[in-house]
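note to self — DONT lose this again. spent like an hour looking for the file last time. sequence + predicted structure for the chain T wanted, 146 res
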Amino acid sequence: MSELIFSQRLREAVTDKGVNQDTLAKAVGVSQGSVSGWFNGAIPSADKLTKIAEHLGVRSEWLIAGKGPKREIKLIELTTAEIHAINQSENTLREDPVIYGTDWKTRAITAEQKLADLKASFAELFVKHEIPIPPSQTLEPPKQAP
């Protein structure tokens, strides 16, 4: 896979953030024409690059050169209760007799619901610790088939 160029990474970050060129221009303090130029291959000054990256929630090193992760890796400190809840959920999934002791269809439905509950718990942790969830990723439980 070829490495993305600045304008492609800018498009990706703008799309992820869900903003348009005009909004970005206002946030950075430049004309919409300047932003259009960036989308067409121009490179912003270092101070503008920093403002662009901050507004879009990406690292400036990734934006300009594609180096490192797109976003800062945010380490969180979980409380003892949160760690216990995660461990308990994992143990429940492993030890649940309904999952391991019934027909395959019941096991699949039960496991899917337990997974949805676990995803919801993680979504709450993400919100609590202000960890961004990219729009392309979702932690919502799947829709139930009719």
